[in-house]
Amino acid sequence: MSDLFGAPTPLVGAPMAGGATTPALVRAVTAGGGFGFLAAGYRTAEAVAADLADLAATGTPCGVNLFVPGPHEIDEPTFRRYAREIAAEGEPYGLDLAAAAPVHDDDHWADKIDLLVRQPVPVVSFTFGLPDPAAVTALRRAGTRVLVTVTSADEARAALDLGADGLVAQGTEAGGHSGTHSPRRPAPPVSTRPLVRDVVAATGLPVVATGGVAGPDDVRDLLAAGATAVAVGTLLLRTDESGASRTHRDALADPARTGTVLTRAFTGRPARGLRNTFIDRYEASAPLGYPELHHLTRGMRAAAAAAGHPDRLHLWAGTGYRNATTGPATTVINRLTKTL
Questions:
Q1: What CA–CA distance (Å, rounded) separates 163 from 40?
Q2: With CB atoms 3.0 to 4.6 Å apart as the test, which of 150, 216, 255, 258 could cross-link to 156 if both were Cys?
Q3: What is the β-pairing status of strands 207-210 and 271-274?
Q4: What single string gives the DSSP state of each residue in 20-57?
């Protein structure tokens, strides 16, 4: 049983923002003996509250993941240059990307912190950096354990100094956005297993390992490396309870999709996904600039998903994507834990 989560097994359903994680998926992970997280990124406090109420109605505990707001990383001329460069990609959907204005927001940060202080959950995790100390103090006073996502031992030490109760060690194999605290100066990429060992040695805190999990052997190896729990995300994307689009699900099973790459072309922040035409065309010239580039391409990506156009869609996936299967998410959790 995990000291962090109180679940029967050391499996965690990773929070996948953008719609992939649903209350139904959290319930299924819990039914399999794991612990599920809601993804609060890109959502209002009201939408998060509705999901929490949905889970509370069935007595399902959960964690919540928040994106830490970052500084402006892109100037307007650079933004407009890239918007013009990718403009043709929006034309099939009636979108004038070249006319878009840069949008920098904090993803409803204060409202969501207030919500989670008023309606505490067992665990809140943070991605993209260190939360402000006041938020950590308020959440801990409410009885919530605080986790910080880290990609290096140095980031782990900073989280320890902040007073984090635990860490999420995200290896380079992980799908979706990198949790690096400094995308302009990221640490050298580290695989999940050695990262776990480094982070445990540097801090002594409980560590959730995430990245590259393809089967039960990976779970055992990461626990043996010192992890308290192991988070899985990509392996849940094709399950019955996933909110991932049909276009995304089908791409994960497409034999023509032969690998994953790190890209900033879609959102202006490094993220791992299946290689596609958009990445091939624009990665070399794509600037850093999150969330401005996320907002720039968001409408195009939604339209591409609806139209079944995978080459204009962010197909987030970790390196274990070939093992993502259809069927109930509970079956995936059971398969990963049956030999523990």
A1: 22
A2: 150
A3: unpaired
A4: T--HHHHHHHHHTT-EEEEE-TT--HHHHHHHHHHHHT
Cα separation values, 222 from 82, 169, 200, 226, 336, Å: 40, 11, 12, 7, 12
128-137 pLDDT per residue, tens: 999 999 999 9
State how far Cα 127 lies from the chain centre.
Answer: 8
Closest CA to 164 of 207, 198, 201: 207
DSSP class of 148: E
Residue closest to 161 by CA, chosen among 151, 170, 153: 153
**Does domain 1-70+106-242+325-340 sit in CATH 3.20.20.70?**
yes
Distances 129 to 159, 189, 229 between C-alpha atoms, Å: 9, 17, 21
State whether residue 207 is helix, strand or coil.
strand
Domain boundaries, the chain: 1-70+106-242+325-340, 72-104+258-314
State how far the Cα of 284 lies from the Cα of 293, in Å rounded to an integer: 15
**Structure-block tokens of residue 68:** 């830490």
User: Element (H or E) spanning 73, and its range?
Assistant: none
Residue 24: what residue type? A
122 within 8 A of 144, measured Cβ to Cβ: yes
Q: In Å, how far from its chain's centre is CA 245? A: 16
Q: Is the pLDDT of residue 2 over 60?
A: no
> DSSP class of residue 11?
E
Question: Which residue type does 311 have?
Answer: D
Integer Cα distance of 168 and 156 in angstroms: 9
Taking alpha carbons only, the member of 91, 56, 68, 65 closest to residue 13 is 65
Letter for the amino acid at 316?
W
Mean pLDDT of 257-275: 97
Cis peptide before 291 (omega within 30 of 0): yes
